[in-house]
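Table S5 (text form). Sequence records supplied for joint modeling of the two-component complex.
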Amino acid sequence: MKQTKKPNKGKITNHIRRIRLARTELTQEELGKRVGATRQTIIAIEAGKYAPSMELAFRIAREFGVPFEDVFQFDPDG
Amino acid sequence: MTRIENMSEPERRSWANLIVDGTVFFIFIKTMTGKGGVENISGAGLVSIYVGIIIATIILHAIIAAVFASRIKNSGYESDERDVEIERKGARHGFWVVTIALNIIIFIFLMQNTFPEDYTPVPNVSLLTPSHMFFALMGTMFLGDIVYRASMVRDYRKNVG
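The corresponding structure-token record, covering 239 residues in total, follows.
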């Protein structure tokens, strides 16, 4: 039986910190409150240590008023 | 900000639960063991230790829950998806520790019943006596709970860089 090759896990990267500082004056805590997350979660997402759910990711992009793919990217080889 | 001020409420709560569980576990070990290992305790003694440990655990966890419920009420903070994920992961780690430990206990118990003279994998520990079996089962329960809490604390520290 032919086996399909298991894909790399990949890595989700983001530009939340850059967009937050360049386009808004939101602190991590304020952004967290607006999207329903804690400051610690925003810190973890910005540092790439936590991949948010689809819902939270869309909320963040919507809060910035930019397309989803401008905020989050997927690196399949990461 | 200090480390404690920098923590979210669920992280502080996981630390409090870890400290309480560790303390009760320490008291349990001190109660059950002497210089020669696990002491042989009467059935009534084991029941009183069991009831005491359970009541102490319930009261301490109820106090923690009440304190953090009032803090959450005042701050309006609720746990988010990351807190839920960290708790779920911790519970899974605790579950696996309990499962593995129970399998080891069952194996040792069966081996000691089959070869009572020849099989002593841990010196001074025999699961053929009620005290030792009680100690092993209660210890497993505590170990699973401590791994659950410790896993949560570790994930909180690991994720927030």
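Note: Chain A is about 50% helix and 10% strand.
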